[in-house]
Amino acid sequence: MRILLLRAGPENDWQPLSYLAQALRTHTPAAVGVVCDSARAELPVGSLALPGAMSALAGPLGTHAVQAALARAAVDRQSVWLHSEGPAFDLFVLPLNLPPRILLLGAGPDAVPLVDFAARLNWKVTLLDHRAAYADAAHFPAAERVLRAHPEELAAAVDLGSFCAAVVMSHHLSSDLAYLRALARAPIPYVGLLGPAARREKLLGDLGSEALKLRGRLHAPVGLPLGGRTPESIALAIIAELHAFVHTRARRSVAAAAAGVRIATLE
After folding, report:
1. CA-CA 20 to 30 A from 184: which of 123, 221, 261, 264?
2. What separation in angstroms does the CA of 85 have from each of 60, 115, 165, 265?
3. Within this chain, do residues 188 and 127 fall inside the same structural domain, yes or no?
4. How far apart are CA 10 and CA 248, in angstroms?
5. How far is C-alpha 192 from the chain's CA centre?
6. 180 lies in the same domain as 118
7. 3 in a domain, yes or no?
8. Total number of domains in the chain
9. Rounded CA separation 52/242 (Å)
């Protein structure tokens, strides 16, 4: 086993910790590269590759190939090895593992335990509801944001591309229909719908051809069949299914990377 210790202090502006901490605060995809082996005197082991002008060293770590690898790893959330010839060095690029961001559409009392469970997992939750009595941040102290907006305003109220999952749970048929219509046009990979199958079929029928855009993404009734009817039991079932979805996707990404080429060659 080889262990590499990196010094982070004021002499190097606490990198890469400064960059990663800022990315975590803003929930921005990020990745850093670390030289793990090198035959170049000017590029010692432990040298860091950071995006653009943030890179501590110019030259080999500022090339287009390295910067492209950083950008790709940040978006794909997959680590990768890069190898450069003449003289050779190996760069390990690792992404920041951002906590999942979940969108809850409906902020009724049954959303309280759902937010509580999500917060215990360090997930970031945004709630949206058009009812003033429900869209109250005081009811959800652990939520990242609580917004008041009409369902038809969903796409304008939040950046739908920033969430990995959305759960529709307003208990209001016309509101849920508007939410599903907006989510059908959004890239969110997981869409959960609270309620029985008959209600789901009614909503999908009202969506018409737009329902096809939810194919493969809609989980309805939302949640694993764990049993129980209390809000806490239902929240646990929803969080369990979300947890399985988020981490299964991550495992698939790792498996796909392992099955492919792990080392790319720099020009």
Report:
1. 123
2. 11, 50, 42, 8
3. yes
4. 39
5. 16
6. yes
7. no
8. 2
9. 35
Token readout for 123 is 């997930």
Contacts of 203 (CB under 8 A, 6+ apart): 173, 176, 177, 180, 193
State if pTM tops 0.90: no
pLDDT at 55: 52
Contact 173, 167 (CB under 8 A): no
| CA distance linking residue 235 with residue 256, whole number of Å | 31
**In terms of Cα–Cα distance, which of 130, 128, 104, 142 is closest to 238?**
104
Domain range for 110: 101-249
Contacts with 243 (C-beta within 8 Å, 6 or more apart), sequence order: 121
pLDDT digits 0-9 by tens, 142-173:
999 999 999 999 999 999 998 999 999 999 99
**113 and 158 together in one domain:** yes
Q: Are residues 135 and 42 in the same domain?
A: no
First to last CA, the chain: 30
Between the CA of residue 62 and those of 17, 19, 50, what are the distances in Å?
A: 19, 16, 8
226 vs 36: CA distance, rounded Å: 46
Residue type, position 252, single letter = R
